[in-house]
Amino acid sequence: MRVMKKKNPQLTKLEIVDMQEIRESMHVDLNDVLNLYAKIVGQRIVDVPIIVDEKSMIILRGNDIYQALDLLLAEKAPILKVDISNVEVTLLKAGLTKEAIIEAALRGRKLPPRSFTVKLDVPRINVPLDRLLKIEKKDREKLKVYGSTLELLYAGWPTPLVRLNSLSNESRSVWAKLEGYNPFSNSVKDRIGFSMIMEARQKSNLREILYEATSTNTGIALASIANLLGIKTKLFIPKTIQKVSDIYLRVLGAEVVRLPVGLTVEAISQVDSQAKKDDALHLNQFENDANFKIHLKHTAREIDEQLKAVDLTPTCIIGGLGTSGHMSAISFYFKTKYGEKVQVVGVQPAANEVILGIRRIETGMKWYHWTCFDKVVDVTQEEAIRGCLKIARKEGLLIGLSAGAVAYAFEKIAKENGVYVLIFPDTGYKYAEQFERYLLGG
Ligand SMILES: Cc1ncc(COP(=O)(O)O)c(C=O)c1O
Hints:
Rossmann fold; Conserved hypothetical protein from pyrococcus furiosus pfu- 392566-001, ParB domain; 3 domains; alpha/beta; binds pyridoxal-5'-phosphate
């Protein structure tokens, strides 16, 4: 241990400075920091200043106070400045010098705990904690406080738009709209579950039970929202859907019927006649205009406004076609507003391929024919899974198969410049079976 002695160091007057101006010099034990944190919160007062070197702003004493204030999200800290060359520093690590302390801190490297101490008579202070905190009265919305799970859905919009840096370069930016951020089905289908049920309620068409043909996501959204309203659901799912869907729907209290059809749309007439017989309400996502309208009012507008926030307008939007609700509305909105400046690209499964959530146009789509698509790209299931793996491995997002198909279609058609928006309808967690088959070669 070496002691570098100096006499009567001159401390300056107390200052309140931005936390960012101060440089940490040493790690401290988290337990010590938490004790200090609790003391500061209890007293609402900071009674010891941080001592910093006046030239470099490096902490000579009070790394623990700095960290406690950082955990409290403080914006400012009370400091006293001193000239390091005038203070007595006890160096507890072999080879350490005052210069080395400064050099390490300037490089952003913190020394191990108790590497040095500084002897000083530090005066007590009396700084109210509130003077150091960012005083910003955040509103409910900003803090994401919701009065009900239903409000969590619609007040949670917009869903995020995120730049995919692995696909972007200087002249091309690629953005993903993450519909998986919807709370019930973790998919784009929460929006239509909400709008179809609310519209039926407005028209006083609700019955005690809802019937719907679904490939999972619409079913989850309907069952969730119906539960909030005390309504039952009976859901009809094709044989091609993964097993786990039955479980999720049953957990939500829905009755689940498996039908011997390959595509959800093939079950419509059967569900319709069954609903009539049983006095149930068949909302029918394939024909119900509340589907198209909610995406026009919200999904499409959100994308436009989100891009405007970063001073961009889209040149190409790519998304999958199931009922065609979300992509038809997006096409309608952007073609009406920007005309030929924006290209809209639909994605469908290649012939004889199954990609859950999307299907081929020739199987019949209502709103697709109301607007203009510049291109439709065919994708196989294997290509869709490869799209998922690429996004997972480059961006850390586990996306669903139809989103993977969109990511793959982007690779097929993308040019070196432009502003691309990829609509990712859901997350990958429902598709473990398909991922397993691909990864294990089953
Ligand atoms: C995962 C997934 N992707 C895409 C779609 C297609 O969306 P839309 O019906 O709006 O065309 C759906 C619809 O069920 C879906 O569940």
